[in-house]
Structure formats: C-alpha cells, structure tokens
C-alpha cells in the first residue's frame, strides 16, 4: 500500500495544515479518495455546532471492512494482519493473515446473521484480548450491526446499564479471560448482568479458559458450534457479502465517563471514522509498509478500537494484539514482545511506562529493542521523567516519541507531533493535526491570547471546526451530546481539558478541568464513584476527588460520612470497596477512603471540592478562604484526619 497523503516534511505539514483549514472539503475529499467506496459522497461536509449536526461524506456508501480487509487480499493476503501474543508466553502465538482475518470475519458475520442480528442492531461485546474479539468487532461492522465493546474490568451492574441504554439484544463474550496471574470469569459476569433483562435474545460464548459456565437453553450458544455451521462457506447464500452503509450510519457505540450522570454512549459513524483513524495512524506514527505496530491498549477502550483495529487494518499494517499485562510473568514482558515480533512502533500509556520504570533497568537486560523506530504515548499527560526514561532506555535516543492527545469523542489523534517530521517537546503534545483547529478560551468562552506570567497562553481547550472522526451524538440522547460538548461555549466543541500554548504554537495538555478523573489512563467520573459509594448501606454521603499518584497519574480519594461502622474502620472501608467494585468495577475502587463527620459545604449546600482536593494533595496550608463555609470546623477535622 502507498499513502499519498502521508506527510513527509515540516513544510508539507505546514502546507497540509493550511489547506485543511482554508478548504477542508477539498482537503478531505483528496484523502478520502484513497479508500474503498461503493458510491462516492455527494457532499464532503455539512455542519453546525449548534444542534449539533455533523455530516462527513454524506451520500457516500461503503462498508468499512472492505477498506480494512477486502482491498488488501490481492497484495497483502499472506501478510499478518494481527499477531496475537497470548497471556502465557509458553502458549502458541497466533498469526492471522489478512486472508485468514477476512475469512473469519465473513464466517462470524454469517454466525451473527444466523442468530438473528440485523443492520442497526446493537451487539455488546465483552471479551478478553483474543483474536476472536477482533473477528466479532469487524463482523458486526460487516453486517452493519453497531458494536459496543465493554472493557473486561467493568462489573455486571455497569454492563446491565449499558445494555439497557443501548437496547442491545445480542452479546458476544468468552467463558473467561486470562490476564496476568488472574482468570476473569466473563460469562459469569454477563449472567449477573442479565438477571431480570428481557431484551437480550442471544449470548455467543467463545471458549478461552474453559472455566465452568452456565449455558441457558434458547439463549446461550457456543462460538465454536456456531462457527462449525458456517465452515462450508460455499453452501451459504450471501456468504461474505457486506451490508453497504451510508457514510453517516453508526459504526459503533463506546461508553465513556463524563462529569455528571451515568456513562454516555459516544457514537461514531462509518465514513469519517475510517478516514480519520487511517489518516492519523499513517501520519503520526509515520507507518511504513511492512512495519509491525504494537498498541498495548485494550480494545475495550477507544485506543484499541482506533489503533489496534481500524487505523492499522485500513492501512494494511501488521498489528500486535497482546492478551496479558506488562508485568507478567515479569516486568520485561513488553520488551520480550518487541524482540519476538521485531516491533517497529510501540504505542503505550504513561502509567505503564511509570510502572515499568519502578522495576529499574534489570528487566531490560538482554533485550535488544533495536527494531523500534517510533514510540508513542496516550491517555494522560506524560511527565518529563517518564518521557526521558522512555526515550533513553526504550528508544535508545533513536526513536521519536509521539505524545498523542485525543479522546473517545474525537475518534482519533488530534494534537500530536509527527514522528521524525515535526519537532517533539517532552510532555507537550505539540501541534494540531491537519483538520484540527484548537482554541484556548477563558471561563466565559472568550479566546485567550495573552500570555500568563510563565510565558504561556493558558485556557480551556476547545475545537473550532469539525474533523472527520468526531462524535456525532450520544446514543439515544442527542440533547446530552449538545449540553455536554457544545453548550458550554457557543459554536465550539469543548474537550474538558485545560491546556497551555507556547510561542511556537505547541500545546501542552494539563489535564481535565471538569470532574472527570484519569486513573491509569482510564476515565472515571467523580459523580459516578460517589453514586456507587452512596449505594453502600451505611453511607450518608461522599465526595470524591483526584490526587497525584506516582504511577496511576491520578488516584481516587473519597471522603465519606457513615451512619456507623460495621466492625472497625478498615472492615467498613473494605465493604465500601466491594460495593464500588460491584456497581462500577474494580477500576473505580478508591485508593483512599477517609471517614469524616461532615463534608465542607457552602451555605447553599454545595460541596467545596476545591478544599477537598487540596487536602487530598496534602496542601494543607493552601486551602484559601474557608469563611464562606456552612461549618468551617469540619475542615479542621478533615485536616487532622489527614495528618
Ligand atoms: C485516547 C484517550 C481522554 C482524556 C483527555 C485527556 C487525557 C489523553 C493525552 C491526555 C494529556 C495526552 N489524555 N491523551 N492528556 N496528554 N497525550 O485516552 O481517550 O479515554 O476518552 O480519555 O485523556 O484528559 O480528555 P479517553
């Protein structure tokens, strides 16, 4: 494959950027012409941020899997599309060529159809990181079903909420998943999620751990049995056919946390998302044909959707998919994988880098790593120490590091340097990609252009104009999409992040300015955690804030008032953690719980989080004015508890 739209120099970046702003329609028409379309679009872009209504390539007809699979068959059929590394390094690797992937996707698409799945139906996917997860996702896309992948760390209750919100009637899962030393009983979690659920008609279960599972007649079927029914591919009418979709038909829903309420289902559509994930992949990582790309994310998050599956596959790349965790059986696992498959591009999260740094240099002994050409990070701001460690010990000062800022809602990378093409600056995401028009605004939505004392322009990060990969709505509730992203500031998409800009126009993302935490690169809303804590029988109320955590980036700190303790503080704490685990999942468990007799509130009854954040950070001398509080004595008590 060749990528005529790949930017090869700083000058051509500048040119591309300029054109993307001056004439976005011509710019994106050019890029989009490099994909497989059944019918060309009538209009490249229609938009307003008021409703909001965003349409890219409208009138265009396509199936994204034709660009990801079919078009590669002739020249790249024998080439690995997915290299799968099992949790246990002793187990056999699976290499899935483009031809094999195409076949499996077509087969599983047929399985879905046989089980009653139709275009537009929502299919919830709750699986470990096995190749079958990729088959399931792409098979949905092939028949026009809307996939909604749920990360394996979410609880039955979270799944139940998402199933209900998406009105999903179909589930694809595994009996269990291997992750490090643990076996996670996925099907059993699904069973709990389905208690009382009347909508789900079919659960397809792939056998991975062969852990005992309940199989309900008429509802649950085994993946392997269903696949056997379609092995005789010639006999099945319509086998391998694609559902031809409108560019703006939904491709998937992915739930993500916001500052209020339950997680919302971010909706991405077929045409724009395809173009955006491919364009950003090829440019930021400077992917060259034949290279091996290893994104360490889980497909349960947007990073896995865009940079394990759709971006690399539409580019005909080889994508490594890893079932396990970076520290098992030891902290050299990533480096073993890099050496084993001669990985050229490694894309991981700052939290993983910091955790591996903690093991020192021993796990790096005897590792070659010379195949690496480009390194990437995503998910949270990267601190300079981690950046330099990554540069020195992994990249051997020979690999550009791309710091990629983006979000579930943006579909793909937004602000990032281009590896080896545009300059890098430690802990700065640097420049916007072509098509991305950032703007920094103050609380009132007025553009900030003046530099602060430190020499940087500082503000809330918004985006002025649409890009092809942006979200189109939040599932089943367009008004929520409008109020969350487009109503804070008129005619702007609000990211929820704060940022700085330097004299070169580089951006540094400083973190969320709303009540969203970023724990190990996972987004969690403080309100969500509070609601879960408040479900515990003895809890009266709670306030959750983030605090700086050496490895996770942010940790979760909960202040809790209770009617009484059951046993001692510690046993009550454990009960609360169990409750949060049940309601949201283990990823949302607070790192610290402090029992308090009351929460600091204003006279109007609002919790003063600013103060609680300072206390959680240990900045006890900088609490500011507490005189407006209803009961200032509470603060002293909380401070003492902290000391
Ligand atoms: C892709 C992904 C989005 C939030 C985002 C921001 C933070 C992501 C970052 C970064 C600084 C980077 N974030 N990348 N902050 N530098 N390179 O992570 O999506 O899970 O939706 O999280 O993550 O705060 O708003 P998502």
TrEMBL record:
One of its GO terms (molecular function) is AMP binding. Its EC number is 6.2.1.1. It is an enzyme of class 6 (ligase). Keywords: Acetylation, ATP-binding, Ligase, Nucleotide-binding. It comes from the Bacteria. Residues 528-606 form the AMP-binding enzyme C-terminal domain. SUPFAM superfamilies: Acetyl-CoA synthetase-like. One of its GO terms (biological process) is acetyl-CoA biosynthetic process from acetate. Residues 13-68 form the Acetyl-coenzyme A synthetase N-terminal domain. Gene3D superfamilies: 3.30.300.30, N-terminal domain of ligase-like (3.40.50.12780). Pfam families: ACAS_N, AMP-binding, AMP-binding_C. InterPro entries: Ac_CoA_lig, ACAS_N, AMP-bd_C, AMP-bd_C_sf, AMP-binding_CS, AMP-dep_synth/lig_dom, ANL_N_sf. The keyword Nucleotide-binding applies. Residues 70-467 form the AMP-dependent synthetase/ligase domain. Belongs to the ATP-dependent AMP-binding enzyme family. This is Acetate--CoA ligase. The gene is acs.
């Amino acid at each position: 494959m060749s990528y005529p739209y790949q930017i090869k120099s700083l000058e051509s970046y500048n040119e591309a950027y300029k054109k993307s702003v001056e004439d976005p329609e011509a710019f994106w028409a050019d890029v989009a012409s490099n994909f497989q379309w059944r019918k060309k679009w009538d209009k490249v872009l229609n938009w307003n941020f008021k409703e909001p209504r965003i349409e890219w390539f409208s009138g265009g007809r396509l199936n994204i899997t034709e660009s990801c699979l079919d078009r590669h068959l002739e020249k790249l059929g024998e080439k690995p599309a997915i290299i799968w590394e099992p949790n246990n390094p002793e187990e056999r690797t699976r290499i899935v060529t483009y031809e094999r992937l195409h076949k499996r996707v077509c087969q599983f698409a047929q399985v879905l159809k046989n089980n009653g799945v139709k275009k537009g139906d929502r299919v919830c996917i709750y699986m470990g990181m096995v190749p079958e997860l990729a088959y399931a996702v792409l098979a949905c896309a092939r028949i026009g079903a809307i996939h909604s992948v749920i990360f394996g760390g979410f609880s039955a209750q979270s799944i139940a909420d998402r199933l209900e919100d998406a009105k999903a009637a179909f589930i694809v899962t595994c009996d269990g998943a291997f992750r490090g030393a643990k076996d996670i009983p996925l099907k059993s979690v699904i069973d709990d999620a389905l208690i009382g659920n009347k909508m789900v008609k079919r659960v397809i279960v792939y056998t991975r751990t062969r852990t005992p599972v309940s199989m309900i007649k008429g509802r649950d079927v085994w993946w392997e049995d269903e696949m056997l029914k379609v092995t005789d591919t010639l006999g099945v009418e319509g086998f391998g056919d694609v559902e031809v979709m409108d560019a703006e038909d939904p491709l998937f829903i992915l739930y993500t946390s916001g500052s209020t309420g339950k997680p919302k289902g971010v909706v991405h559509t077929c045409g724009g998302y395809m173009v955006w994930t491919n364009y950003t992949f090829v440019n930021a990582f400077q992917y060259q044909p034949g290279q091996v790309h290893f994104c360490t994310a889980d497909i349960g998050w947007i990073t896995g959707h865009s940079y394990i599956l759709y971006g690399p596959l539409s580019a005909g790349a080889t994508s490594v998919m890893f079932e396990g965790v970076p520290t098992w059986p030891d902290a050299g696992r990533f480096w073993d994988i890099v050496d084993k498959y001669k990985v050229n591009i490694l894309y991981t999260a700052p939290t993983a880098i910091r955790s591996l740094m903690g093991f020192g240099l021993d796990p790096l002994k005897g590792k070659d790593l010379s195949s690496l050409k480009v390194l990437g990070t995503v998910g949270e701001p990267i601190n300079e120490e981690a950046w330099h460690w990554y540069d020195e010990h992994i990249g051997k000062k020979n690999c550009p590091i791309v710091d990629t800022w983006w979000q579930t809602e943006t579909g793909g990378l937004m602000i990032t340097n281009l590896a080896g093409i545009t300059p890098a600056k430690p802990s700065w995401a640097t420049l916007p990609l072509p098509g991305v028009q950032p703007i920094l605004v103050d609380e009132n939505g007025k553009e900030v252009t003046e530099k602060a004392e430190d020499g940087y322009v500082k503000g809330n990060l918004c985006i002025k104009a649409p890009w092809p990969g942006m979200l189109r709505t939040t599932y089943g509730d367009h008004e929520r999409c409008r109020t969350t992203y487009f109503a804070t500031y008129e005619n702007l998409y609000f990211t929820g992040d704060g940022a700085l800009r330097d004299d070169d126009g580089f951006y540094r993302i400083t973190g969320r300015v709303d009540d969203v935490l970023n724990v190990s690169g996972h987004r969690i809303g403080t309100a969500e955690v509070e609601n879960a804590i408040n479900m515990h029988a003895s809890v009266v109320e709670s306030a959750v804030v983030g605090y700086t955590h050496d490895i996770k980036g942010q940790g979760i700190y909960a202040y809790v008032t209770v009617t009484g303790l059951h046993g001692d503080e510690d046993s009550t704490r454990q009960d609360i953690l169990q409750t949060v685990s049940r309601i949201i999942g283990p990823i949302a468990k607070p790192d610290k719980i402090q029992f308090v007799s009351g929460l600091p509130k204003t006279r109007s009854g609002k919790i003063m989080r600013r103060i609680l954040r300072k206390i959680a950070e240990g900045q006890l001398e900088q609490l500011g004015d507490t005189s407006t509080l209803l009961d200032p004595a509470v603060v002293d008590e909380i401070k003492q508890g902290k000391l």
